[in-house]
Amino acid sequence: MTETFLTHQQIFSLKRKTLEKRIRNYYEETHDEDTTIKLLIALQVRDELGTADFSFFLKDVVRKIMLHTKTTRALRRYYIYFENYFDKKEWKQLTSRLFAATSFIAEKAKKLFAQFIKEPLEGLAGS
Q: Its domain of life (predicted)?
């Protein structure tokens, strides 16, 4: 978030309407999902720390990014902070879309390979 169009001071001091307009325009111009999600996380922090209401900030943009864009590491990392933006059915669908079964199986296979094959064979080679 170092090369964003908003400074840290602006994120924590501008009014809701101004931030909505700027972030929406930024997303529509650049389609930079990662930066947009990080900005929205910062605004959730502002909502918790400050008195201004930033709950469900840009809900339509969050839903569009999460449900209709390509899965990225940032989406998988930060999706949990947006659980309240979705109903239970959509949340299940989003979770299964972001964490596909094939990646889950591949990860488990690597762990099992390391645990049962690689590490025991390394122990034999050292003796």
A: Bacteria
- Residue ranges of domains in the chain: 8-86
Q: Cα(20)–Cα(60) distance, rounded to whole angstroms?
A: 11
Q: Model's pTM, two decimal places?
A: 0.72
Instruction: Enumerate helices (H) and strands (E) in the chain, giving the number of each.
Output: 8, 0
Q: 76-102 pLDDT, tens per residue?
A: 899 999 999 999 999 988 888 888 766
What are 97-119's pLDDT values in tens digits?
888 766 667 677 777 777 766 66
3-class secondary-structure state, position 33? helix
Give dist(CA 110, CA 2) in Å, integer.
Answer: 34
Q: What are the b/e assignments for 33-49, b being 16+ CB within 10 Å?
A: bebbbbbbbbbbebbee
Contact 8, 46 (CB under 8 A): no
Contact 97, 71 (CB under 8 A): yes
